[in-house]
């Protein structure tokens, strides 16, 4: 009896997984176009106003033709495209659309891992719909989202999360792409290293110096050499380069913190430059907080500094908001611990989920002070963000 159950579970582990990564196409902008069809075909952005130093949260494809992208200062966006229509962000509306999309997902599987309001992984390995065809399940979900929510969503289908996420970008917008198990090897061989999760600007530049441009190059370089050059990340890089990723689709993804960080091309020499760089990260932090798939309350604020010798320090304080003066003070304390050039800065909050699942605005919602939400763009993106 016992032997039988062991055999069964081994069989189950070996079975091919079917993961779908869904990602709405220019989500906020799509919702606004849905609600006001006169906007269709025109360049639009959703975000803060240029007069108040606002930032673009999302823009449609027409706006992207002008070089506009998210996190760009609205004033810059307007300069690039004088006809740009800028619409104020309406998070409650986007949250409602998101919950309707999730209700559609739920009809096919309970194994859903939301990444943000407009993105999620689904594990459909055990879903019997369409005789278990993940490709047809993805098509059906995309059709239902189009018909009932009124926006388009793209999908990537693959044996794991890493490949599914890359695949959802392949035929975007309003498309899907599958990497079948027998295609994984060929697919990753040609894949550029910058597509790998965790490989940002700095790591990619280092790889290019070593002439590592594709996953095939990483495979040939070998696990040992990768560890030698990239430390503990080396082993993971080797796995990814072979298309291996065993991370499960995790349904109880409760966040403990939300943060944004940036590694600088040139070390920041002093406290003033650190403080300035830190302030530039705050609009990005706000965007992350806005996009959380559920509601949390803030418990602490923190600042992380990594000095040029890679020594890292994190300073935090109890807080219920993202007070800008607290961040200034934390940055100062952190810098005082090292008093030497800084290569990386992170800012964030420790959070706890709110018990209520309500979609209505609550007094405890995450939001920055108004002047913070209107801060100018941050110019560089972090290693992590680039890939997320
Ligand atoms: Mg999206």
Task: Please give a structural write-up.
The protein is of the alpha+beta class. The protein folds into 4 domains: 16-25 and 92-180, 2-Layer Sandwich (Alpha-Beta Plaits); 32-90, MutS, DNA mismatch repair protein, domain I (3-Layer(aba) Sandwich), CATH 3.40.1170; 185-241, 5' to 3' exonuclease, C-terminal subdomain (DNA polymerase, domain 1), CATH 1.10.150; 257-386, DNA polymerase, Y-family, little finger domain (Dna Ligase, domain 1, 2-Layer Sandwich). Helix content is 40%, strand content 20%. It has 16 helices and 12 strands. It has helices spanning 2-14, 27-35, 61-64, 74-80, 91-106, 134-149, 161-168, 184-189, 201-209, 215-221, 223-230, 233-241, 271-290, 324-338, 370-373, 383-386; strands at residues 19-24, 44-47, 56-59, 85-87, 112-116, 119-123, 153-158, 176-178, 257-268, 296-307, 312-318, 342-353. The strands form 3 sheets. Strands 5-6-1-7-8 form a 5-stranded mixed β-sheet. Strands 9-12-10-11 form a 4-stranded antiparallel β-sheet. Strands 3-2-4 form a 3-stranded mixed β-sheet. Bound molecules: magnesium ion (MG). Magnesium ion (MG) is lined by residues 23-24, 27, 118-119. Magnesium ion is lined by residues 23-24, 27, 118-119.
């Amino acid at each position: 009896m016992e032997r039988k159950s062991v055999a069964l579970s081994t069989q189950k582990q070996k079975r091919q997984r079917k993961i779908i990564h869904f990602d709405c196409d220019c989500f906020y902008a799509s919702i606004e176009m849905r609600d006001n069809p006169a906007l269709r075909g025109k360049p639009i952005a959703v975000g803060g106003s240029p007069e108040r130093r606002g930032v673009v949260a999302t823009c449609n494809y027409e706006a992207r033709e002008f070089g506009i992208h998210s996190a760009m200062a609205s004033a810059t966006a307007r300069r690039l495209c004088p006809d740009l229509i800028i619409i104020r962000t309406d998070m409650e509306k986007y949250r409602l659309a998101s919950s309707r999309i999730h209700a559609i997902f739920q009809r096919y599987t309970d194994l859903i891992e939301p990444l943000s309001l407009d993105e999620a992984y689904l594990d459909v390995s055990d879903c019997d719909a369409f005789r278990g065809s993940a490709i047809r399940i993805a098509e059906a979900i995309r059709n239902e989202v189009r018909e009932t929510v009124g926006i388009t969503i793209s999908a990537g289908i693959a044996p794991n999360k890493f490949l599914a996420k890359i695949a959802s970008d392949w035929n975007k917008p309003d498309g899907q792409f599958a990497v079948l198990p027998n295609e994984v090897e060929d697919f990753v061989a040609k894949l550029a290293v910058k597509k790998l999760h965790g490989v940002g600007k700095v790591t990619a530049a280092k790889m290019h110096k070593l002439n590592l441009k594709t996953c095939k190059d990483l495979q040939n370089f070998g696990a040992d050499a990768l560890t030698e050059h990239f430390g503990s990340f080396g082993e993971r890089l080797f796995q990814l380069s072979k298309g291996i990723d065993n991370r499960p689709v995790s349904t109880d993804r409760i966040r403990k913190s939300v943060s944004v960080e940036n590694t600088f091309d040139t070390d920041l020499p002093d406290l003033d430059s650190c403080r300035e760089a830190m302030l530039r990260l705050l609009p990005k932090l706000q965007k992350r907080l806005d996009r959380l798939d559920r509601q949390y309350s803030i418990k602490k604020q923190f600042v992380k500094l990594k000095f040029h010798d890679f020594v890292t320090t994190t300073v935090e304080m109890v807080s219920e908001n993202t007070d800008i003066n607290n961040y200034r003070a934390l940055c100062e304390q952190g810098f005082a611990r090292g008093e030497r050039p800084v290569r990386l800065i992170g800012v964030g909050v420790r959070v706890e989920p709110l018990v209520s699942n309500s979609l209505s605005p609550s007094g405890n919602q995450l939001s920055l002070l108004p002047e913070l939400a209107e801060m100018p763009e941050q110019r560089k993106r972090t290693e992590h963000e680039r890939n997320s």
